[in-house]
Write a structure and sequence with these properties.
globular; two-stranded antiparallel ribbon; single chain; 2 domains; 4 helices; alpha+beta; 192 residues
Protein backbone atom coordinates (compact mmCIF):
# COMPACT_ATOMS: atom_id res chain seq x y z
CA UNK A 1 0.00 0.00 0.00
CA UNK A 2 1.11 3.52 -0.65
CA UNK A 3 1.51 6.06 2.13
CA UNK A 4 -1.13 8.60 3.14
CA UNK A 5 -0.90 12.09 1.75
CA UNK A 6 -0.78 14.88 4.33
CA UNK A 7 -2.84 18.02 3.83
CA UNK A 8 -2.12 21.53 5.05
CA UNK A 9 -3.99 21.35 8.37
CA UNK A 10 -2.09 18.24 9.48
CA UNK A 11 -4.83 15.71 8.71
CA UNK A 12 -4.03 12.64 6.69
CA UNK A 13 -6.18 11.79 3.72
CA UNK A 14 -6.29 8.29 2.25
CA UNK A 15 -4.78 7.46 -1.10
CA UNK A 16 -6.94 6.19 -3.99
CA UNK A 17 -5.73 2.65 -3.26
CA UNK A 18 -6.73 2.95 0.42
CA UNK A 19 -10.17 4.28 -0.55
CA UNK A 20 -10.66 1.32 -2.90
CA UNK A 21 -9.64 -1.16 -0.18
CA UNK A 22 -11.89 0.52 2.37
CA UNK A 23 -14.87 0.50 -0.02
CA UNK A 24 -14.35 -3.18 -0.85
CA UNK A 25 -14.13 -4.16 2.83
CA UNK A 26 -17.14 -2.03 3.75
CA UNK A 27 -19.23 -3.68 1.02
CA UNK A 28 -18.17 -7.14 2.21
CA UNK A 29 -19.03 -6.24 5.83
CA UNK A 30 -22.49 -4.98 4.81
CA UNK A 31 -23.18 -8.15 2.80
CA UNK A 32 -22.18 -10.40 5.71
CA UNK A 33 -24.15 -8.28 8.16
CA UNK A 34 -27.33 -8.39 6.05
CA UNK A 35 -27.02 -12.17 5.54
CA UNK A 36 -26.90 -12.67 9.31
CA UNK A 37 -23.44 -14.24 9.19
CA UNK A 38 -22.09 -11.75 11.74
CA UNK A 39 -23.19 -11.13 15.32
CA UNK A 40 -25.41 -8.04 15.01
CA UNK A 41 -24.65 -6.57 18.44
CA UNK A 42 -20.93 -7.31 18.00
CA UNK A 43 -20.82 -5.50 14.65
CA UNK A 44 -22.66 -2.46 16.01
CA UNK A 45 -20.43 -2.30 19.08
CA UNK A 46 -17.31 -2.71 16.93
CA UNK A 47 -18.38 0.08 14.61
CA UNK A 48 -19.09 2.35 17.58
CA UNK A 49 -15.64 1.64 19.00
CA UNK A 50 -14.07 2.28 15.61
CA UNK A 51 -15.81 5.66 15.34
CA UNK A 52 -14.73 6.61 18.85
CA UNK A 53 -11.10 5.58 18.38
CA UNK A 54 -10.74 7.30 15.03
CA UNK A 55 -10.18 10.63 16.68
CA UNK A 56 -10.43 9.79 20.34
CA UNK A 57 -13.87 11.37 20.58
CA UNK A 58 -17.37 10.13 21.35
CA UNK A 59 -19.81 10.71 18.50
CA UNK A 60 -22.92 12.12 20.19
CA UNK A 61 -24.63 12.83 16.87
CA UNK A 62 -25.63 9.22 16.23
CA UNK A 63 -28.51 7.18 17.64
CA UNK A 64 -27.71 5.73 21.06
CA UNK A 65 -28.06 2.09 22.02
CA UNK A 66 -31.71 1.31 22.69
CA UNK A 67 -32.21 -0.24 26.14
CA UNK A 68 -34.07 -3.55 26.27
CA UNK A 69 -36.77 -2.01 28.47
CA UNK A 70 -37.60 0.78 25.97
CA UNK A 71 -40.77 0.78 23.91
CA UNK A 72 -39.94 -1.39 20.87
CA UNK A 73 -41.86 0.74 18.36
CA UNK A 74 -41.01 4.26 19.53
CA UNK A 75 -38.13 4.01 22.00
CA UNK A 76 -36.89 7.62 21.86
CA UNK A 77 -38.96 10.63 22.93
CA UNK A 78 -36.16 13.20 22.55
CA UNK A 79 -32.53 12.99 21.46
CA UNK A 80 -30.49 16.20 21.43
CA UNK A 81 -27.29 15.79 19.45
CA UNK A 82 -24.12 16.96 21.19
CA UNK A 83 -21.43 16.70 18.52
CA UNK A 84 -18.06 15.04 19.04
CA UNK A 85 -17.11 14.85 22.73
CA UNK A 86 -13.62 14.45 24.19
CA UNK A 87 -14.11 11.73 26.84
CA UNK A 88 -11.50 13.31 29.12
CA UNK A 89 -13.55 16.50 29.48
CA UNK A 90 -16.48 14.96 31.37
CA UNK A 91 -17.75 16.96 34.32
CA UNK A 92 -20.53 15.96 36.71
CA UNK A 93 -22.37 19.23 37.32
CA UNK A 94 -25.02 19.97 39.94
CA UNK A 95 -28.13 21.91 38.95
CA UNK A 96 -29.15 22.38 42.60
CA UNK A 97 -28.92 25.64 44.49
CA UNK A 98 -27.63 25.84 48.08
CA UNK A 99 -30.92 25.05 49.79
CA UNK A 100 -32.49 22.82 47.13
CA UNK A 101 -32.61 19.12 48.06
CA UNK A 102 -34.69 17.68 45.21
CA UNK A 103 -36.55 18.58 42.03
CA UNK A 104 -39.48 17.00 40.35
CA UNK A 105 -38.29 15.49 37.12
CA UNK A 106 -39.61 18.21 34.84
CA UNK A 107 -37.66 20.96 36.61
CA UNK A 108 -34.53 18.81 36.80
CA UNK A 109 -34.69 18.00 33.08
CA UNK A 110 -35.22 21.66 32.13
CA UNK A 111 -32.21 22.77 34.18
CA UNK A 112 -30.06 19.85 33.02
CA UNK A 113 -30.74 20.40 29.32
CA UNK A 114 -30.03 24.14 29.66
CA UNK A 115 -26.51 23.42 30.92
CA UNK A 116 -23.92 24.22 28.28
CA UNK A 117 -22.46 20.96 27.04
CA UNK A 118 -24.90 18.57 28.69
CA UNK A 119 -24.62 15.10 27.13
CA UNK A 120 -26.91 12.46 25.67
CA UNK A 121 -27.12 8.67 25.92
CA UNK A 122 -24.37 8.19 23.29
CA UNK A 123 -21.93 9.42 25.93
CA UNK A 124 -23.51 7.10 28.51
CA UNK A 125 -22.95 4.16 26.13
CA UNK A 126 -19.25 5.05 26.07
CA UNK A 127 -18.74 5.74 29.78
CA UNK A 128 -20.74 2.66 30.86
CA UNK A 129 -18.03 0.31 29.57
CA UNK A 130 -15.62 -0.73 32.33
CA UNK A 131 -12.55 0.31 30.35
CA UNK A 132 -13.90 3.88 30.27
CA UNK A 133 -14.74 4.24 33.98
CA UNK A 134 -11.35 5.93 34.37
CA UNK A 135 -12.93 9.08 32.88
CA UNK A 136 -15.75 9.24 35.46
CA UNK A 137 -15.32 11.73 38.34
CA UNK A 138 -14.35 10.20 41.68
CA UNK A 139 -16.67 12.51 43.63
CA UNK A 140 -19.90 11.62 41.78
CA UNK A 141 -22.42 8.94 42.76
CA UNK A 142 -25.08 9.36 40.05
CA UNK A 143 -24.42 10.94 36.65
CA UNK A 144 -27.49 11.70 34.52
CA UNK A 145 -27.32 12.01 30.71
CA UNK A 146 -30.36 14.28 30.13
CA UNK A 147 -30.28 14.91 26.39
CA UNK A 148 -31.87 11.58 25.47
CA UNK A 149 -35.31 10.72 26.82
CA UNK A 150 -36.51 7.14 26.31
CA UNK A 151 -40.11 5.87 26.30
CA UNK A 152 -41.16 2.86 28.38
CA UNK A 153 -43.83 0.56 26.87
CA UNK A 154 -46.32 1.69 29.56
CA UNK A 155 -46.03 5.31 28.45
CA UNK A 156 -43.64 6.64 31.09
CA UNK A 157 -40.45 8.33 29.97
CA UNK A 158 -37.01 8.29 31.51
CA UNK A 159 -33.40 9.39 31.17
CA UNK A 160 -30.40 7.11 31.56
CA UNK A 161 -27.84 7.49 34.32
CA UNK A 162 -24.74 5.83 35.66
CA UNK A 163 -24.72 4.97 39.34
CA UNK A 164 -21.67 4.08 41.41
CA UNK A 165 -22.09 0.77 43.24
CA UNK A 166 -18.93 0.05 45.18
CA UNK A 167 -16.09 0.11 42.66
CA UNK A 168 -18.39 -0.37 39.67
CA UNK A 169 -20.65 1.86 37.62
CA UNK A 170 -24.04 0.53 36.56
CA UNK A 171 -26.55 1.77 34.03
CA UNK A 172 -29.94 2.87 35.28
CA UNK A 173 -33.00 4.83 34.30
CA UNK A 174 -34.63 7.69 36.17
CA UNK A 175 -38.33 7.92 35.39
CA UNK A 176 -39.64 11.37 34.58
CA UNK A 177 -42.60 10.82 36.87
CA UNK A 178 -40.50 11.02 40.02
CA UNK A 179 -37.96 13.22 41.75
CA UNK A 180 -34.24 13.80 41.42
CA UNK A 181 -32.23 14.25 44.60
CA UNK A 182 -29.15 16.34 45.23
CA UNK A 183 -26.90 13.32 44.63
CA UNK A 184 -27.84 13.42 40.91
CA UNK A 185 -25.37 15.30 38.76
CA UNK A 186 -25.51 16.08 35.06
CA UNK A 187 -22.98 14.82 32.55
CA UNK A 188 -21.58 17.87 30.78
CA UNK A 189 -18.46 18.87 28.89
CA UNK A 190 -15.96 20.50 31.25
CA UNK A 191 -14.97 23.93 30.02
CA UNK A 192 -11.20 24.44 29.91
Amino acid sequence: MTANKAVADGRLVPTAEQVETYTRRQTELIQRFLKGVLDTDGVLEGLQRLMEMSRGFINCDIQPEIPSWADPERPIVQHIQCGMVDPGRLAAVSVFGDREEFFYSEEFLIRAQKLAGSMNACALDFYARAENWKYLPADAEVIVFPNTVFRHPGGNSGVRHLCRVGLEWRRGCSLLSGRFGRVCRVAAIRRS
